[in-house]
């Protein structure tokens, strides 16, 4: 009997089905990336803590304002030596402070959007980290091997980032909603949720979360260094809030004398954001709320577009 | 599977002042393990990254089964890549690393467990990447490359950090993948390992092709086999072999003969009645050939 040479037996190759909705696969992958690292709960805890802190401050302030407004015994006592105009202004101020409806609405607007200041910073940072993490941890290689069309990767991340903004908004809003309802129930006052100014504040709070997440994302595509992007984001956000309007005031005072200089301060992302969320004009020369929306979107689109172009050409090493 | 070959044509990458890869052309066939060899800095990794669309070539092209990597539909079902810097997030578990790749590729996440088993990493699947040893990281990278059960594997230094058992495992794995008809291109510094594993080699130095072909041919091209003969009557044997062969005495009274093969020497010894105490083929090994071929080209550029 002779042995015959058999060709090597083909091993059973597994049949791997295609799963997932083609357009959403990358989004799903991005969400898993976020959910499987510590960033997830660290940012969650930070967001919860900042919301809690802001709620505490806002509710303490609201309690004080509302009890003052409820004090019907208070009467308007102007100081001596006021001009007629000053007198009128003081009287109007007094009337506002003792307008229970106005105070309740303002309190509701503040309480139901508690945690916005740091919440926006957090979603901005997360938006940036979604991109920079890939380079920090050298996962860009695996990501781009799976999806060599880099622009598709960027858009997948973009959708995930918007989802992230929405999620953190929901988290923060759920907390403040529960706390706010208890607060207004306890002091026996309407929660004002049916009032447009309060609804507007909550809606624009969401818009702000999405736009800042987007802006952080745009920055992340542009600056791939983790530290670089965190520092830049902090500068843009905190520096913008603290120093932004000051710089424009100086320009107005010493360089260009025109009110449009103050109006144009809206090009600063932080001022654009405040202009957008404020129900009334932030300051007399402030631009309209929709200019704020456009400016924030504009910055995100410009940063993102430059980032995408660079990304397409970039060598992944 | 005829379309699973890799074709590199005129591939060039110029960094600021270095031609990292210089007009490089070679072909890799399916069903064979092809070793991609070169000194440090020869441009191996850059070449593999260009094939995988991670680095933009300055000129030339690289295709897999006739298509550029970027033009492949579902690339990780066709090509599995492992690169030196294939990292994973330090805080993510091996299983989750694979699952997020499954998500992106539209592969069921159960496949992550299959490949973890295939590379023997199941016990560490739920440990974070930062706790992995170098060998475990390589295994995770190979698991990722196998996720889509691809026809083509492109592996950059896969044996890095593996222990002897791991190297043996890797050799058997790559061998069996090639035997199933897949294309396997693997870069390595371990020349003795490559000699055992590879069917073909592509040797580059200073970004240029030095030699390519089946391992035996490449070795023979560098001078061919020599015969080692031990006999008490060397003069008679040399005289009988004639002037077409060169014989040189080496230590211990043996002769090194070039230009005659075993049967020729045996027949000559029989005719003159010379006793043969030893007759051995001395084939140069891949390491010698490699060093010879890349001599002077391995400088840091």
Would you give an account of this structure?
The complex is a heterodimer of chains A (317) and B (301). Chain A has 317 residues and is mainly α. Helices cover 73% and strands 0% of the residues of chain A. Chain A has helices at 25-35, 39-70, 84-97, 100-112, 116-136, 140-146, 150-186, 196-222, 226-255, 259-263, 269-277, 289-313. Chain A starts with 24 loop residues before the first helix and ends with a helix. The mean pLDDT of chain A is 86. The mean pLDDT of chain B is 89. Chain B has helices spanning 44-51, 94-105, 110-118, 134-146, 164-179, 191-197, 215-221, 234-241, 262-272, 286-294; strands spanning 6-15, 18-28, 33-37, 59-64, 79-82, 152-156, 183-187, 200-205, 208-214, 226-230, 246-250, 254-258, 278-282. Chain B has a six-stranded mixed beta sheet, with helices on both faces. In chain B, 33% of the residues lie in helices and 26% in strands. Classes of the chains: A mainly alpha (317), B alpha/beta (301). Chain A binds chain B through residues 8, 10-11, 13-14, 16-20, 22, 25-26, 28-29, 32-33, 36-38, 133, 137-139, 141-149, 156, 313, 315-317, and chain B through 49, 52-56, 69-70, 72, 74-77, 79, 81, 83, 85-93, 96-97, 99-101, 103-108, 111, 114, 144, 148-149, 176, 179-181.
Q: Quick summary of this structure?
A:
The complex is a heterodimer of chains A (about 325) and B (about 300). Chain A is mainly α and about 325 residues long.
Q: How many helices of chain A?
A: 12
Q: Tally the helices of chain B.
A: 10
Global structural class of chain A: mainly alpha
How would you name the oligomeric state of the polypeptide chains in this document? Answer: heterodimer
Number of domains of chain B: 2
